[in-house]
Design brief:
The chain is mainly beta and 470 residues long. The protein has one domain: Methylamine Dehydrogenase, Chain H (7 Propeller), CATH 2.130.10. Helices cover 7% and strands 34% of the residues. It is built from 6 helices and 33 strands. Strands 28, 29, 30, 31 and 32 form a 5-stranded antiparallel beta sheet that branches. Strands 3-2-1-33 form a 4-stranded antiparallel beta sheet, with no helix packed on it. The chain is globular, with a radius of gyration of 20 Å. Residues 236-249, 266-274 and 278-284 have low confidence and may be disordered. It is a peripheral membrane protein. Its EC number is 1.8.3.4.
Length: 470
């Protein structure tokens, strides 16, 4: 995305939609809980249909340690620095959810074969910030990098933010002021033109590492809020928290166009998954999408709520997508009228309610029958749809099927044996609608050292879930 005297990224979201088609993607691949004592690695996958390596892992960059649990990634610079000619999007920031290391990856020297540029050790993160378990990374217009955290050194919940220097990647300290960390942490997104940042919560790391346990929820070890905060000056942080009846709040996504005053976010309650929108003033929120829970037998819980584990919005703000990990579907909503989202696309694969499986659905307000198992190129898709990434033009939606190794092991033990997969969904960008591309499959069960869990996807040139416009 070069434009002469411009910095990284694109001038606007609509300009980004005219960018080149993705040719490679980066994915962290995790060995934790698979029984394979090998380091996690960053995989480079060829997604160019004209390439002889199409749908293949063309490079693997192993980390130097075992047990990191690579998770989400971000950039040293993105479209928020587009006006700064001194900035380049040349480093991928790759935090480790369990070890608390932060890897800085050089993707400029050879984009198809990344290399480690620097390692920020846990001692530096913990010593300067008192934080651990880093999760979401965003580049800031200031040139700094901000990373949300889930906990403290003892594994308790602590939703603070780590600031890295954007040049030498040294830990600068905390973004939030003393005493302003949320009880828990997870994802975040900021919108500079509206001076707002929205962060979500998950739970205490010491509880999450054991998988889902109802007793942890009763003990208050789980997230219950969505916190809007003034940005960029945390001194003006609002103490207001959007709680309602929420039991957990995961990923956050803002509308791409900063002139529109809204942030689309996820939230949930015990009656079903809800996708809401906060507008302008912090206390205001709308519950726009409700996914009814399904009453079942043959599972720990008597009813399965929708569990939305990723969410994104197309760069023209036309469609919203989310993955419903436990039910097993990916949904597409037309949000041209942001107050009245319309379901226009839905595909099922994997999930816990498949026909012929151990779980029998006894009451379902959405489906007449349980979904059938899905096969792509002869392989049965295990697990459930998890991380999403949309092409810049909005026509291709990539999906992976691993959430977090401890939870994968509990909910989908077959994925630990067979590895996760990466699929591609073709999108109708005119009327809405989605179909699985039967010619696309990356099977991470066939990796050289055994099955791995592939997680979040990133394009070298940026994407709709990492770029922010000022």
């Amino acid at each position: 995305a070069k434009c002469g005297a411009c910095g990284p990224g694109y001038r606007s979201p609509l300009e980004a939609m005219k960018g080149p088609r993705e040719q490679i993607v980066y994915l962290p691949c995790i060995h934790n809980n698979t029984g394979i004592a090998k380091p996690d690695y960053l995989a480079t996958v060829d997604v160019d249909p004209s390439s002889s390596k199409y749908c293949q892992v063309v490079h693997r960059l192993p980390m130097p340690h075992v047990g990191d649990e690579l998770h989400h990634s971000g950039w040293n610079a993105c479209s928020s620095c587009h006006g700064d000619v001194t900035k380049r999007r040349n480093r991928l920031i790759l935090p480790s959810l369990i070890s608390s290391r932060i890897y800085v990856i050089d993707v400029e020297t050879d984009p198809r074969a990344p290399r480690i540029h620097k390692i920020v050790e846990p001692s530096e993160v913990m010593g300067k910030c008192g934080l651990a378990n880093p999760h979401t990374s965003h580049c800031l217009g200031s040139g700094e990098i901000m990373i949300s955290s889930l906990g403290d050194l003892a594994g308790n919940g602590k939703g603070g933010f780590i600031l890295l220097d954007g040049e030498n990647f040294a830990v600068k300290g905390n973004w939030e002021r003393d005493g302003q960390a949320a009880p828990f942490g997870y994802d975040f997104w900021y919108q500079p033109q509206h001076n707002v940042m929205v962060s979500s919560e998950w739970g205490a790391p010491k509880a999450l590492s054991h998988g889902f346990r109802p007793e942890d929820m009763k003990a208050g070890e789980w997230a219950i809020s969505l916190t809007p905060t003034h940005y960029p000056n945390p001194t003006h942080s609002s103490p207001h928290t959007l709680r309602s009846a929420a039991s957990d709040l995961l990923h956050v996504a803002c509308l791409a166009h900063p002139t529109i005053g809204g942030q689309a976010v996820q939230c949930a309650d015990t009656k079903g998954r809800r996708c809401g929108k906060t507008l302008g003033k912090f206390p205001y929120s709308e519950r726009l999408i409700i996914i009814p829970q399904k009453k079942v037998c043959g599972m720990l819980l008597g009813a399965i709520p929708g569990v939305i584990t990723d969410i994104l919005i197309s760069l023209d703000d036309r469609f919203l997508y989310f993955s419903n990990w436990v039910h097993g579907d990916v949904r597409q909503y037309d949000i041209k009228d942001t107050h009245k989202p319309r379901l226009v696309g839905q595909v099922f694969f994997g999930g816990s309610i498949l026909k012929g499986g151990p779980v029998k659905v006894v009451e379902d307000k959405e489906l007449e029958t349980q979904p059938k198992p899905r096969f792509v190129q002869g392989k049965r898709i295990q697990g459930g749809p998890q991380m999403l990434q949309l092409s810049l033009d909005g026509k291709r939606l990539y999906v992976t099927t691993s959430l977090f190794s401890a939870w994968d092991k509990q909910f989908y033990p077959e994925v630990m044996k067979e590895g996760s997969v990466m699929l591609q969904i073709d999108v109708d960008t005119e009327k809405g609608g989605m179909t699985i591309n039967e010619d696309f499959l990356v099977d991470f069960g066939k990796e050289p050292d055994g099955p791995v869990l592939a997680h979040e996807l990133r394009y070298p040139g940026g994407d709709c879930s990492s770029d922010i416009w000022l």
